[in-house]
Design goal:
Elements: H1 2-26, H2 44-57, E1 61-67, E2 74-88, E3 91-95, E4 101-105, E5 111-116, E6 119-123, E7 133-139, E8 144-151
Length: about 150
């Protein structure tokens, strides 16, 4: 269960990082979130979270780095959401709608989930086909290794 939470959190962090980078690149000083003056004091926090979730749902790809507390060890994470352009037992290539493509190594540690009818189930890379809509999360800098693949079969 904690691995599912970690993968979900990592995807959320990746998409949040991508949104933050886009905001920084645009030079905008507005967050796009409601301010306390535009929302009742009771609903302000909920409105801010809802706005962030909406932006995260539109993220296409991102990269972030984590570190271990009290250590100089760092891990680079990468995520992409898009269409499978190539897949084999050892790799998957995904193309986002902005035409960015990323190829990930697939190994025995890669968790694959198939989502159909709103429910997810454990699967294998052999069930993922070119043209499927997926979200992939992985680690690495020069060679990306997939830690999780979620196939939504659209």
């Amino acid at each position: 269960m904690w691995k599912k939470i970690a993968i979900g959190g990592a995807i959320a962090a990746a998409t949040l990082g991508a949104g933050t980078a886009a905001l920084a690149a645009s030079g905008s000083t507005s967050s796009g979130l409601p301010t306390p003056s535009s929302t009742s004091a009771h609903g302000a926090a909920g409105a801010k979270h809802q706005g962030a979730r909406m932006r995260l749902g539109r993220a296409l790809h991102g990269q972030w780095v984590t570190g271990k507390a009290g250590s100089t060890t760092f891990t680079t994470h990468d995520a992409i959401r898009g269409t499978v352009s190539a897949v084999s037992p050892t790799s998957i290539t995904v193309r986002a709608s902005d035409k960015v493509s990323e190829t990930y190594v697939v190994n025995s540690g890669t968790k694959v989930r198939m989502r159909t009818s709103g429910k997810g189930a454990a699967s294998s890379i052999g069930q993922v086909k070119a043209g499927d809509q997926v979200a992939v999360i992985g680690t690495g800098t020069t060679t990306l290794t997939a830690t999780g693949v979620i196939d939504v079969k659209k």
